[in-house]
Amino acid sequence: MKGLDERGWALLPGLLSPDECAAIISLWDQGDLFRSRVVMARHGYGSGLYQYFAYPLPEPVARLRHEFYPKLAEIANRWGGDFPASHDAYLERCRRLGQTRPTPLLLRYETGDYNCLHQDLYGPEVFPLQMAILLSRPEQDFAGGEFILTEQRPRRQSRPSVVPLKQGDAVVFPVNHRPVTGSRGPYNATMRHGVAELRSGRRFTLGVIFHDAA
Question: 147 to each of 91, 93, 107, 172, how far by Cα in Å?
C-alpha cells in the first residue's frame, strides 16, 4: 500500500459507502453486540466513548478483518515478521497465548472530545498494522477531530502527520513501530495515533485491529 514505507501510513479512499457507514454507526446502541464500553476520561485516555465488539463480530466488521489481513500480513512479513497467510490461523496463535477477546471497536466523539496519542497493544502477540475508518462526514456531521499520527525516530523530535480522511476513507498505519532505513542503517521508528479535539458535532470511527486481547 502506497505510503506505508515512505511516511508510515496509507490512505484507502472510499473503502465504505455512505450507506455502509450508516449501517455500522447504527450498531452503536445494540448493546448485545459489544463486550465492553470504555469511558475514556476515567482512564486518562482523553474524552469520548468506545465499545469493543464481542464475538461473533457483525458481518461487515468480520469481513473487513478477514479480507484485509492477508494483504497486510504480506507487508508485515516484508517488515521482518512471521505471520501466517490467513487470519484464522493468526487468531489461533493469539488463542494459544491466552489472547481471546476481540479488539475491533466503535468510537464516538462529541463536541470537546479527543483521543490522546497511544498504541493499541493488548498482549505479547501484536500484529503490526491496523485500520481506522471514518464513518461520519467532516464539516457536516462534525468539525475538528482530525486523525493524527506521530513518528519518533532515535535522537530526533517527533514528526506529526494529519491524515485527511473523508467519510468512508480508511487509514492503515503501524500499531507500535515501523522499519526505517537511516544513515546508520535500519531501525524501528515508534508510532502513536490519536484524534484532535472536536470543535462541534459527533464523529464515529471504526477501528479494525487484527490481534485479539488477553
Answer: 28, 31, 13, 12
pLDDT of residue 153: 76
Bridge-partner residues for 132, per DSSP?
Answer: 171, 207
Instruction: Report residue 108 CA to chain centroid gap.
Output: 14
DSSP 94: H
CATH of domain 4-209: 2.60.120.620
Give the position of cell 495515533. 193
Q: How far is CA 214 from the centre of its chain?
A: 18
- To the question of pTM greater than 0.85 for the whole model, the response is yes
Domain boundaries, the chain: 4-209
**Residue 31 to residues 27, 28, 51, 54, 161, Cα–Cα distance (Å):** 8, 7, 9, 10, 34
Q: What is the pLDDT of residues 44-95, one digit of tens each?
A: 999 999 999 999 999 999 999 999 999 999 999 999 999 999 999 999 999 9
For the chain, residues with pLDDT lower than 50 are none
Cβ distance 211 to 125 under 8 Å? yes
How many Cβ atoms from other residues are within 10 Å of residue 176's Cβ?
A: 14
